[in-house]
Write a structure and sequence with these properties.
Layout (H helix, E strand, L loop, with lengths): L1 H13 L2 E4 L2 E4 L14 E6 L5 E6 L3 E6 L2 E7 L4 E6 L2 E6 L5 H9 L4 E8 L4
Parallel strand pairs: 6-9
Antiparallel strand pairs: 1-2, 3-4, 5-6, 7-8, 7-9
Length: 123
């Protein structure tokens, strides 16, 4: 229903995920430190291939999926994004994922397997 969609969009905004000019950005101005996990836990999700998966989420982070790609947001010394790809790992400085990786996530092509965001403002 419309109400469910609104809740999903609202929560993604609270977690800091936004789409600006076709790029995924992370700016969790409403995410409070108390919402970060106090201890490591597991995230169960369905990936873009329809497979059931598990991901270990570290303490002092939160995790969710966006377009069936797991996103882990946690504390860090500088704003940076680690993009786990089918072909390896790439790093992006700042809070903007970039058009190429964003398109891959939107298209659910399986090339982006996980995104890990480190943000200093969560300290």
């Amino acid at each position: 229903t419309g109400m469910v969609k609104e809740e999903i969009l609202t929560r993604l905004g609270e977690l800091g995920l936004r789409v600006e000019q076709g790029e995924i950005t992370f700016d969790p101005v409403l995410l409070r430190a108390i919402e970060l996990l106090p201890a490591a836990t597991m995230l169960d999700y369905i990936d873009v291939h329809g497979e059931e998966c598990q991901l270990e989420v570290p303490a002092n982070a939160v995790a969710f999926t966006f377009c069936q790609v797991p996103i882990v947001v946690g504390r860090g010394d500088a704003a940076k994004i680690e993009v786990s790809l089918a072909s390896g790992v790439q790093f992006v400085d700042g809070k903007r994922l970039g058009a190429e990786y964003s398109r891959a996530i939107f298209g659910r092509d399986g090339s982006v397997r996980q995104v890990t965001v480190s943000l200093p403002e969560l300290l």
